[in-house]
Amino acid sequence: MKIGNIDLGERPVMLAPMEDVTDPSFRLICKEQGADMVYTEFVSADALIRNISATTRKLHINAAERPTAIQIYGREIEPMVEAAKIVEAAKPDILDINFGCPVKKVAGKGAGAGMLRDIPKMLAITSAVVKAINIPVTVKTRLGWDHESKIIVELAEQLQDCGIQALTVHGRTRSQMYTGEADWEMIARVKENPRLIIPVIGNGDITTAEKAKDAFSRYGVDGVMVGRASIGAPWIFREIKAALGQENRHGGEITFSEKFALLRRQIVESIERIDEYRGILHIRRHLAASPLFKGIPNFRETRIAMLRANTEDELNAILDRIEYEILPTLSAN
User: Fold this and answer.
1) Are 67 and 39 in contact (CB under 8 A)?
2) Which single residue of 4, 74, 162, 266 could bond 45 by disulfide (Cβ 3.0 to 4.6 Å)?
3) pTM attached to this predicted model
4) Position 247 confidence tier, pLDDT thresholds 50, 70, 90
């Protein structure tokens, strides 16, 4: 699969853009675990133009994580074009436009998935951004605003006509947010459209290696994108690659010790990137979501202590107890 001149190989797997999740450390870890392309946290066009430091920091890309896409969102043509030029200067491999974020603070203001209620403006923004920059432009969106307006098959053609070079479809409407099941049949209909020649990337409910494999074999997408299932489990890319028969490039089955090592690395790098207090606050989301701790009996008090730890030493002591005392006992039984 190619996006412009960027060759992502056969059946590529991408890390989805996620606010407060896809920081440089996490992107690099996912890349090392098998992600074929990674996306930054999504960036507000308005904040980028105002040179807000917390936003401009999101444009930093490490060479080892490439290919990397920077994703922007906004609701007006001129700010989106100006932001796109700023992003291009940061030298990502791809610029992605977010027309899919469903949260109220974004969609409620007409940006993200809010654009699904104003298709003419969505298309105008897309065309203007494509014309303004020289790197490949892609789009990520949803099936439609609600159940009564699943317009993605027609919309995909319209976006292609604007000049985008790939389309990612999250298999839910904005009204669904993240509830219910992603509709992969609708994603397949987009891919099956003979007039659509750009790559189609499927997104939504890719929570296991088998689901990723099924997305390729059953629904025929060109690529898959993994979002929430990677939080606290960046090794999911390694597992997917193994299921796709590509394990030779990324290693075989991953051990518990290796998984713990990845979480510990995230803690260290999060603290180094920010500071101890805020770095630990940032990493709590990954610890809370990690499947490593699921199924451990009587784990509630340990979990609470882990998520309340305020220092690196305190957190490591709790993880040591889990890894070297609690889990070996369970294995022995």
Assistant:
1) no
2) 74
3) 0.94
4) low
Least confident of 248-257, 281-290, 306-315: 248-257
pLDDT at 280 over 80: yes
Task: Give catalytic status of residue 101 as yes or no.
Answer: yes
Closest CA to 150 of 178, 183, 128: 183
Q: Are 240 and 267 in contact (CB under 8 A)?
A: no
Residue 169's DSSP bridge partners are: 141, 202
Sign of CA dihedral 113, 118, 120, 121: negative
Report the pLDDT value the prediction gives residue 298, as an integer from 0 to 100.
87
Cis omega before residue 67 (within 30°)?
yes
Exposed e or buried b per residue across 199-232, where buried means at least 16 C-beta atoms within 10 angstroms of its C-beta: bbbbbbbbbebebbbebbeebebbbbbbbbbbbb
Q: What is the pLDDT of residues 159-180, one digit of tens each?
A: 999 999 999 999 999 999 999 9
6-22 in b/e burial notation, b at 16+ Cβ within 10 A? bebeebbbbbbbbeebb
User: How many angstroms separate the CA atoms of 257 and 331, rounded?
Assistant: 13
Marked catalytic residue, from 13, 101, 106, 182: 101
Q: What is the DSSP string of 186-241?
A: HHHHHHH-TT--S-EEEES---SHHHHHHHHHHH--SEEEE-GGGTT-TTHHHHHH
83 near 125, Cβ under 8 Å?
Answer: no
| Alpha carbons 62 and 162: distance in angstroms, whole number | 30
List pLDDT tens digits, range 76-119: 999 999 999 999 999 999 999 999 999 999 998 999 999 999 99
And the tokens for 94?
A: 């791809």
Distances (CA, A) of 267 to 19, 86, 140, 299, 310: 18, 31, 30, 21, 12
* Residue 287 to residue 49: CA distance in whole angstroms: 34
The whole-number pLDDT of residue 330 equals 60
Q: Please, are residues 167 and 156 in contact by the beta-carbon 8 Å criterion? A: yes
Alpha-carbon distances of 23 from 17, 50, 168, 294, rounded to whole Å: 9, 21, 20, 25
